[in-house]
Amino acid sequence: PSLRLDVITVFPGYLAPVHESLVGKAIERGQISFGVHDLRRWTHDVHHSVDDSPYGGGPGMVMRPTIWGDALDEILTADATLIVPTPAGRLFDQSVAHELAAESHLVFACGRYEGIDQRVVDDAARKVTVRELSIGDYVLAGGEVATLVMIEAIARLLPGVLGNSESAVDDSHSNGLLEGPSYTRPESWRDLDVPAVLRSGNHAAISRWRRDESLRRTAVRRPDLLDKIAPGQLDRRDREI
Ligand code: SAM
């Protein structure tokens, strides 16, 4: 089964990197089909304007519902999920990435300015699943970069997209923890040695060491993640760390 991705934006050029590297190869292999659509295609006036001043006053401009409505009527299919990137959305994290990787058609509606008239979301929600998602607690100028982030995180979870050499199972966030440090040759570099256990050949000791480093790093950098781990997921040795 392949995944269909459509992105609607006033800056189609922003999405060019999708054709690079991992996602680009998945598109070439037919695992993902990808379309970018210029929102201005659905404008009717000579200025191709997509925004207007906000009801209730205040600074900035809001994207007009009529143009977005026409665009979505054309691009949304019955089995699509509409994703609206917004800093006011629920957090896009690895578990949301897994959920979205199981879908067949994702449509991304990239906002600019102060965002899109809320009725666009309300109207689309009468027909399809709509998810308003934030990629983190900061404000970008538009939804395009957030869309790139989500597409890359989703694409690498699709079966056959990652090669054997880059498995996703040990990644940070896949088991609720951060991944510990990695090392490659040479064994000693600028007076810094690779931890001896990694060169021991003792696989049980190596996996215990990796687990310990993962727990330690998570406790220091992201204690909030440890709080979310169910007690059953930690063994006795884990709890001693
Ligand atoms: N007025 C909006 C608010 O405060 O919620 C911010 C609008 S922002 C300047 C313009 C667009 O950038 C948004 O419509 C959204 O598409 C995108 N955007 C900005 N920050 C984002 C984030 N953290 N996650 C996802 N999209 C974001």
TrEMBL record:
Homodimer. InterPro entries: Alpha/beta_knot_MTases, tRNA_m1G_MeTrfase_C_sf, tRNA_m1G_MeTrfase_TrmD, tRNA_m1G_MTases_N, tRNA_MeTrfase_TRMD/TRM10. PANTHER family: TRNA (GUANINE-N(1)-)-METHYLTRANSFERASE. It comes from Antricoccus suffuscus. GO terms for molecular function: tRNA (guanine(37)-N1)-methyltransferase activity. GO terms for biological process: tRNA N1-guanine methylation. CDD domains: TrmD-like. Keywords: Cytoplasm, Methyltransferase, S-adenosyl-L-methionine, Transferase, tRNA processing. Belongs to the RNA methyltransferase TrmD family. It is found in: Cytoplasm. Its main location: cytoplasm. The keyword rRNA-binding does not apply. Residues 3-227 form the tRNA methyltransferase TRMD/TRM10-type domain. It comes from the Bacteria. Specifically methylates guanosine-37 in various tRNAs. The keyword Transmembrane does not apply. This is tRNA (guanine-N(1)-)-methyltransferase. It catalyses: guanosine(37) in tRNA + S-adenosyl-L-methionine = N(1)-methylguanosine(37) in tRNA + S-adenosyl-L-homocysteine + H(+). It holds the Pfam family tRNA_m1G_MT. S-adenosyl-L-methionine binds at G111, I135, G136, D137, Y138, V139, L140. NCBIfam families: PRK00026.1, trmD. Transmembrane segments: none annotated. Its EC number is 2.1.1.228. GO terms for cellular component: cytosol.
